[in-house]
Design brief:
This protein has two domains: 4-171, Peroxisomal Thiolase, Chain A, domain 1 (3-Layer(aba) Sandwich), CATH 3.40.47.10; 182-324, Thiolase/Chalcone synthase (Peroxisomal Thiolase, Chain A, domain 1). It contains ten helices and 13 strands. The protein has helices at 22-28, 33-40, 54-69, 92-98, 115-128, 152-155, 217-239, 256-265, 277-280, 287-298; strands at 4-14, 19-21, 44-46, 76-80, 106-109, 134-141, 161-171, 182-185, 193-194, 214-215, 248-251, 306-313, 317-324. It has a five-stranded mixed sheet with strand order 1-7-6-4-5, with helices on both faces. The protein has a four-stranded mixed sheet with strand order 8-13-12-11, sandwiched between helices. The N and C termini lie far apart (44 Å). The structure holds oxa(dethia)-CoA. Pathway: Lipid metabolism; fatty acid biosynthesis. Its main location: cytoplasm.
Length: 338
């Protein structure tokens, strides 16, 4: 008997062309290229121009993913972001309409930097359950709209970008089939990453930074390594894989030191640990599919490789999943031929 599964069938990503280098940040903040490189591994990040919204990046990435999957229609659109175009409505319907996808169901999933794994859980669940046959999952972030430009502890980390995957119904065992997706969350520590004001709890800022993204970086760092290694082991066990089976680790690009520590925890040699944080920074929920698209484009990911995905971020929320790379074709995210 063949078992219905959810299969990754296309990937695409888009990075806005404007760059902010470490030298640009050192011109206006008490920081240095040396500190940023040593403590985060970041050299530059892409930023959207003022007026460019999450849906604008999402449409570019979504259209590339549809082209990569060689399809023009899907049955649903799931979108993940921490920077929606507006507090309401959701950003997904706007993206679906602009991609010419008609009136398919379209909704947002909110899980900060773990958004792609949470989105994958929802999207693959509705495919595997037989509710739909094909889903576009888009992760899009304009962190430059929520990061305090004067806060050196966050302004140096985040970048803007979007990436998307097409998921389709298939069978377990074929290239691209997703293994079990393991998730977790801990609201007790939810204050470690937050925007305090602007919601129903605190409608307006009481202090100057309250309307901006805030993070207790040092504490978050420790939680990130611990939670991603735990949940990765759970996902590997659920898939029946050992660490030694993992040929590519694609972790949320939070900090090069976090990614390195995670690789060490899981016993993965550095050649198996993919990264693009040096050139793209931390792009929130977009970082995993962005790295998948980039690695597929530049040959670091090839057909049949066993891949482990894992993320951690605000919520706190975390997740991990496995898949065998399907060998889809993707454009490099900073290539803009159109
Ligand atoms: O994506 C969601 C999940 N996010 C993460 O997982 C991020 C986790 N956290 C981190 O990546 C790191 O904690 C940061 C990059 C945010 C900070 O690096 P750190 O090595 O943990 O620095 P720290 O917060 O322990 O601060 C060390 C020192 C402090 O100075 P003092 O008190 O020792 O004098 C900071 O004020 O570094 C200072 N500092 C900076 N110095 C120069 C903090 N940011 C900067 C900066 N430039 N940009």
């Amino acid at each position: 008997m063949t078992v219905r599964a959810c299969v990754l069938a296309g990937v695409g990503a888009w990075l806005p062309p404007d760059l902010v280098t470490n030298a640009d940040l050192a011109d206006r903040l008490d920081t240095s290229d040396d500190w940023i490189r040593r403590r985060t591994g970041i050299r530059q990040r892409h930023v959207a121009s003022i007026g460019v919204a999450a849906s604008d990046l999402a449409v570019k990435a979504g259209s590339r993913a549809l082209r990569s999957a060689e399809v023009s229609q899907v049955d649903a659109v799931v979108l993940t972001t921490s920077t929606p175009d507006r507090p309401l409505p959701a950003t997904a319907p706007v993206v679906a309409a602009r991609l010419g996808l008609g009136t398919v169901p379209a909704f947002d999933v909110s899980a900060v930097c773990s958004g792609f794994l949470y989105g994958l859980f929802v999207a693959s669940g509705i495919v595997a359950a037989g509710n739909v046959d094909r889903v576009l999952l888009v992760a899009t972030e304009v962190y430059s709209s929520i990061v305090d430009p004067l806060d050196r502890s966050t302004a140096v980390i985040f970048g803007d970008g979007a990436a998307a995957v097409v998921l389709r119904a298939g069978t377990a065992g074929e290239h691209g089939a997703l293994g079990p997706i393991m998730l977790g969350a801990d609201g007790e520590s939810g204050d470690l990453i937050q925007i305090p004001a602007g919601g129903s709890r605190q409608r307006t800022p009481k202090a100057p930074g309250d309307g901006y993204f805030q993070m207790a970086g040092n504490e978050v760092f420790r939680h990130a390594v611990l939670r991603m290694s735990e949940v990765s082991r759970q996902a590997l066990a659920a898939a029946g894989w050992q660490s030694a089976d993992v040929e590519r680790l694609v972790a949320h690009q939070a900090n090069a030191r976090i990614i390195g520590a995670l690789g060490d925890e899981l016993g993965l040699s550095p050649d198996r640990v993919l990264s693009n944080i040096e050139t793209a920074g931390n792009t929130g929920s977009a970082s995993i599919p962005l790295l998948l698209a980039q690695a597929a484009a530049d040959g670091r990911l090839t057909t049949g490789q066993r891949v482990l995905l894992t993320a951690f971020g605000g919520g706190l929320a975390w997740g991990a999943a496995t898949l065998t790379w399907p060998g889809v074709v993707a454009l490099h995210p900073s290539e803009h031929p159109e």
